[in-house]
Every structure is written in C-alpha cells, then in structure tokens.
Write a structure and sequence with these properties.
The protein has 142 residues and is α+β, with helices and mostly antiparallel strands. It contains 5 helices and 3 strands, in the order βααααββα. It has one domain (2-130).
C-alpha cells in the first residue's frame, strides 16, 4: 500500500502498516519518515515549513497536537468558564479556519485498489504552508 498526499504527489511507501504481515516496529520515541536528505533538499522557507509540519503530524498525531497545528480550537466548557475568571468570551467559541475543507473534505481520499495507492484529497501540510499568514496559524511568521 502506498500513499499520495494529494493528486500531484508521488506514491510513498511506509505510511500504511500491514499488521497481518508480521511484527510492526514500535519506536521508543515517535518515528517519522522525514529523512536528513529531505531536509538537505529543502531550499526555501516554505519547503522547510512543510517538512516541519510533516514531522509534527507524524510525531505528534497521537498526542492531539494536529488540531492545534490546523488552527482548530474547541470551546472551553461551561464548567471551566464558570470556575475560571481567566476564560474570556472568545474562549467559549469554536474556531474553524476558513481554509479547512468542510464536509469531511480534510479526511477525504480515493483508493486505487488495482495499484494499491491511497490518494488524499488535500495535503493539509501544503494547505497550512499556503495559509501561513492566517491569524489562526504560525504566530512566529510575519
């Protein structure tokens, strides 16, 4: 099984693990498929930013950081609001940036069974880089 991050991407191996094929390597520290060669090949800020967010996606996906990286914020609960004077009105509103594909588009993909290739509809790391100046993202980029 191979994965393409969007229709223009090359098919990549190693992202779908076949548990029926035998043992799966478990890392003490989260693993990534980003290699030193990928970093060396990056020649622009956008290419490095893209790799940074690929790393964060691969390493922190189980830790829940992906939602924050995407600029999505869940509202603070009413219980927290009532008990914490630091909760402001903007904290009780959900935040979904306009560049996030709606109607489950962010998770949409096609599967070419004959060739064993899954193609994601949106490469969300590329979407993040394209929207790097959005107020919901990248506070360190001006």
């Amino acid at each position: 099984m191979k994965v393409k991050f969007d229709v223009s991407d090359n098919a990549r191996s190693g992202y779908v693990l076949d548990r029926q094929a035998g043992n799966i390597k478990a890392y003490t520290i989260s693993g990534t498929l980003v290699k030193a060669e990928d970093l060396d090949a990056a020649v622009s800020q956008d290419q490095l930013l893209y790799l940074l967010y690929r790393l964060r996606q691969e390493i922190f996906i189980a830790e829940g950081r992906r939602m924050t990286d995407l600029g999505i914020r869940f509202p603070v609960s009413q219980t927290e609001q009532l008990n914490n004077p630091n909760v402001k009105a903007e904290h009780i509103q959900a935040q979904l940036p306009g560049f996030i594909p709606l109607n489950r588009g962010m998770d949409d993909f096609t599967y070419d069974k004959d060739n064993g290739v899954v193609t994601m509809k949106y490469d969300m790391n590329a979407v993040l880089v394209k929207n790097k100046h959005a107020k919901e993202l990248f506070p360190f980029i001006q």
